[in-house]
Amino acid sequence: MFEKITAAPADPILGLTDEFKNDTRPEKINLGVGIYKDESGNTPVLATVKKAEAILLEKETTKSYLGIPGTAEYGLAVQQLLFGANATIISDKRAQTAQAPGGTGALRVAAEFIKRQLGDVKVWISNPTWANHIGVFAAAGLETASYSYYNAETKDIDFDAALADLANANEGDIVLLHGCCHNPTGIDPVEAQWHQLAALCVEKKLLPMFDFAYQGFAVGVEEDAQGLRIFAEQCSELLVASSFSKNFGLYNERVGAFTLVGKNAEQAATAFSQVKSIARVIYSNPPAHGAAIVTLILNDEALRNEWEQEVADMRNRIQEMRTLFVQTLKDCGVDADFSFIERQNGMFSFSGLNKDQVNRLKEEFGIYIVGSGRISVAGMTKNNMLPLCKGIAAVL
Ligand code: LMR
What we know:
Elements: H1 14-22, E1 29-30, H2 47-59, H3 72-83, H4 88-91, E2 95-101, H5 102-118, E3 122-127, H6 133-139, E4 143-148, E5 150-151, E6 156-157, H7 159-166, E7 174-178, H8 191-204, E8 207-212, H9 226-234, E9 238-243, E10 255-261, H10 265-282, H11 289-299, H12 301-331, H13 340-343, E11 348-350, H14 355-365, E12 367-368, E13 374-376, H15 382-395
Parallel strand pairs: 1-12, 3-4, 3-7, 7-8, 8-9
Antiparallel strand pairs: 2-10, 5-6, 9-10, 11-13
Helix pairs in contact: 2-11, 2-12, 3-11, 5-6, 5-10, 8-9, 11-12, 12-15, 14-15
């Protein structure tokens, strides 16, 4: 029966990680997948996570199932992180949250929810976007359309083009936005632009959906929710997929959440009953460990403060690498202006390297970059910076 099956293409990001692992060159550098590396090139367990785990190990009394949406404490902690501790959306019970297996799991639940409950609407996705977005929505049978986002010449957001494209969306369509640290460009809308986007969604009756995977990696945990909170003020309904892979370093624990905000408590609760049915037929109920860690850290004042400092340390190290990268490229004789890298947020930048250059970097130098030219700045260290920049200088 299987003889008819043809091989699936390798994943553009995770497939590259496999290739990297199989590369035997000791000097190889992985700037593909978005995983934070410290100065020694390791991805450590956060100190607060270790502390929370020790407490959990001591206190845990059962491995019994969680409910379909996970625990209420986790849901509340997620909502407070998204909308602010005292948000009326929360006190009015307009938000409902289901824990999901990672940000991707949350997106997939959202996609099913959209398809089953909102019908044949289109999902508008920025061009470029995370390599998995289109696949996740297509897997639920949804049609996707793209809106312009990036101007390769100015290396900035092409905001007018984005608005012009979104003007073609129909009532009920979904607009997918990156909460902060746009993946892959690292360029986020500024405050006035968030307002304009939210106004457009209200005017055209579009449903905003946020993919929020890097909260804390741009400016700060609270500050990075600015765009989402502007939308929450203006739009009566919205969807959010959260991921705690990066800001808690809980990559392999698969901790995410799908949050929906309704016009009122009753509509939110009814819609959420459908979310629960969707989760039940995909994974039944979520894994407990990672969400328990996040809940504990966010609800304990000392751990929370320490965690925010850990996030700040990761953010600042990446920013330091951005500056060093631009300087080292100059030192290696690169004339092209790479200063835009310093203006971008989060783990990624769109380097402007083309496919041939990306291939040469891999083949000749063991430097792994996603085919689109996206580089994970989080994978740079003081030790790999010089060989990295020499490689780039050679292929430019
Ligand atoms: C990335 O964009 O590199 C990360 O979000 C990891 C992934 O799953 O692709």
